[in-house]
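## retry 2 of 3
previous attempt timed out at serialization; input unchanged, resubmitting
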Amino acid sequence: MQSLTTPLPEYRSIKTVWALKIKQIHPDEWGIGLVFEEAGFDVKAIPNGQLMNRPKPEAGWYYVQYEGGYFSFSPADQFEKGNIPIEKVIENAARLAHEANRLLCQSLGDFSQPEWDVAPKWQKESAIVGVRQILNDPSTTSEQSHQSWLRQKRDEGWKYGEVKNPETKEHPCFVPYHDLPVAQRLKDHLFGLTVRSVLFPQ
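## retry succeeded, writing output
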């Protein structure tokens, strides 16, 4: 067979995979048993028949499962170069959405929003909850995002106030979506656009 002499077409993967890092491998005559670094997962037993045509795994590699149930093994450096844990993706989306919101607020004369790295825990958690909602339902509208935010704030004991005050848990946006000023609706819309650009980069 001749080797290819021209560069192959380039592809960029956006698929979702599930993976565990292999801590130990216990081989015997019937196959192998995999022990993972992540806590809470049982030993994965793989018979010899399912190991055919797959690379021989080593400790430190990843056990990777794809949609449809197919699995394979990948060296750690190759896997980690092309895959990011979903929790990190969620945090990145929340960070970018927070910063976009902060800049929008500044353009409207509101300089009260702190940068993400120094933002209070409750503010970060609120953004992350919003990201998770869009991840679970990409069709989430700006109004639905606000309704979810309202429910979360209500459960945490917040109420309406003319000025945002975390100590008294008062917020001027603690109103139905249709009662929000246009600028506040724009913030919800910008949040969704920013989050989708990170979660679904197509």
